[in-house]
Predict the 3D structure of the following.
Amino acid sequence: MILQQIKDILTIAREGSITKASHVLFRAQPNLSSMVHEVESELHITIFDRTPTGVKLTLQGERFVTYASDIVAQIEKLEQIGQTSEETYSMGISVCRASYCVRAVSDWMKHTFDSSQKLSLRLHETNTDEAIEQVVCGESALGIIRLPSFYENYYLQQLENKGLCCDHLMDFTMMLILRTDHPLASLPTIRQEDLYRYTEIVHGDQQSLALSMARINPLLHGTPPRRIYVYDRGSQIDLLQRLPEAYMWVSPIPLDMIDSYGMCIRSCSLSTVVNLDLLIWRKEMMKNVSVHNCADFLRQYATKLQYDTTQRLSEIHNR
């Protein structure tokens, strides 16, 4: 087995298809298939399960990819020796689509790195399953995943099977964000029937809209009579600002962001499901000082945000 074979297998794992990988690598698909069989035979393992839509990593394949990613990363560092007098720090982080995740990572960068230091940070905003795979494959050193609490045991088992470690960041129920002059803003707690006449803004690119609704209430059925689907997440705030009677379901958002947008948050009796945000990583990554420090920073940030959000909602309810 040679280094190029390792890199090719990592590309196949990332693309999820030998055919797609052949286009990326400019290699013939039969040659890639033969190479995979050769490596599997040499190591006496099965790296991929073949499916009608591509390939999927086996448990042995996930372990192979974990070790292979580390090997490639170390070799790349060796190749960089002498190329520059100043090392470029490189790291990948995969996070669920939540405002606080991006804010926390950017604050960690400002806190950790000097403005003159060379830095290559890959920040992936994605869904839970993709974040897990990116951490398994070594594309990211850390991940933040989100799941309803009723899926906790399932995902904890999945993480264990894939050799990943995890830690609790925060738990919360979904709440509403709306303009401070919204007709419902005067209510400390909003009921389902209160929402009926207003316009809901929904992320149209959710992996599963049904799952998204289940994160609010598993008994929630039907579609509100007024709903706007957005696919550019930057447009959601603009819509909320321009439509006086719009609202949106959200997870905790940094309070200074909410205030700067002229928005407010409100609890809703309809929201009953506890959601969990978990920090995930490969065990060996905690040996990296920067990764360890980043993980600590994210824990502290999430803990403070959860506390601040709880306090804000409590103040509103006690008015």
Remarks:
- The chain has three domains: 3-79, 89-171+276-314, 174-273.
- Residues 175 and 267 are 5 Å apart (CA to CA).
- The first strand starts at residue 48 and ends at 51.
